[in-house]
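User: Structure please.
Assistant: Input sequence and predicted structure:
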Amino acid sequence: QVQLEESGGGSVQAGGSLRLSCAVSGDTKWRKCLGWFRQAPGKVREKVADIVTVGGHTYVADSVEGRFTISQDNAKNTLYLQMSSLEPEDTAMYYCAAGWSCGRWSTPDEFDYWGQGTQVTVSS
């Protein structure tokens, strides 16, 4: 079992920044990938970024490239998503997840542990 708990969401104005955190606990040794996803009302869940837990190789979606950064602190068992230059289109519920496949082509179906989500709202 893996437990994930997000924090750090909130409301900001366009151009602002937020840092999301995800506390990771449990048996993660069989989950090679940690990722951030988001889902806006009426839209499908999309992956924002992921990171290979051993090695630290990262992937960031084209839509947030240059604005979002994913990182992990293994000593604190915490995953981060630093978001800057936020846009109203970034408004969504953000989830962290643990799975077995990282990279551009991995899908939400390849992540089997999910947090409850944290809301990010960006106003214009």
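The chain has a mean pLDDT of 95.
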